[in-house]
Sequence to fold (160 residues):
Amino acid sequence: MDKKRALYAGTFDPFTNGHLDIVQRALKLFDELIVVVAVSPTKTPFMSTATRVKVLKKLFAHEPKIKVESWSGLIVEYARQNKINSIIRGLRPTGDFEIEFQMASMNRKINPDCDTVFLMTSEKLYYISSSLVKEVFIHDGDITSFVPPLVQEELKKIKK
Fold:
């Protein structure tokens, strides 16, 4: 029987506890999860792509079902090239649906064999976003409850 594989992509700049929640829940649905650090030409990241990949590989080193990579093209094309038929997306009750629905529809048009699986963000974490975490961090606020400890350590290195 074939493994059920999915990918979960994002800029993850930084990777938050909200992202972690989606990863943990996706692992219950799939045999393998590829976490893809997306390189977006329209965003200027706070952390380098290499740093984000390194942190995520370290964060998930104990989890054999997770593979971490980076990609600078269309995520749906990554899925096609790697024979992955499911893309995981998290939805927050903050207006994500319209954008995510449009993206999922476009992806399905580009690759009809690939479906998007939406997971609702946990009610305890829905307000967390990478951009808000960066804002709090830049202004010396406490981000301990928003990101995994490894991510916080890496952010402190950047700020020095």
